Amino acid sequence: MKDPVTYHPGGESVQEDAGGTASSVLRTRSSRRAFIKGVIASGAVAGSSTFLFGGLGGCSSDQPTAGAVERLLSINVNGRVRRVDVLPNETLAMTLRYKLGLTGTKLGCDRGECGACTVLIDGVSTYSCSTLTHMVGDRQVRTIEGLEGPNGELHPVQQAMIDELGPQCGFCTSGQIMSTVALLEVNPNPTRDEVRHALSGNLCRCGAYDHYLNSVMRVAQEA
Fold this sequence. Notes:
Ubiquitin-like (UB roll); about 15% strand
């Protein structure tokens, strides 16, 4: 009768006899242990070589890592240079609201359609929800908070909005005001059609467009 054959996971089939069973099992376990040690050792070598030849690539000041983005930025907001930690894909609206606490800039659609997030960048009305903070560079950002006078007085456009009952719910108002300021700084005496065109990128879900138009015409006439 042939000796029984025993299979050990990770090893080879071993034919046992009465006197050799223990030594066969030990050889199988030993070969399995050697295999596992070999796998671990090869992984350690591969990891160390990656660290030595690739992991230190960004340590040289004149050879930055490809695709690296500086996260600590200096941006000029309302006449002040602010240092802020910014993620690579972070929008200006998110930075203004949640990093700098300037919550007058509203987030409506968050996809560049409603205009509630409008701010001025170098005097140009811009949707801050579709502008990456890393793209601002050294340009000057102006938000609704930056319109406040030295003694806390309202900007003439803000006062005209109140006088003409422009805001209804008020959510879009800061964007409407910033677009108006951008218009009046380059065209102090616009026609009603020019005002309508300038505010065409700002949606009012309350439908108070005539009130906003009247506000702009009022401040233009009083200037």
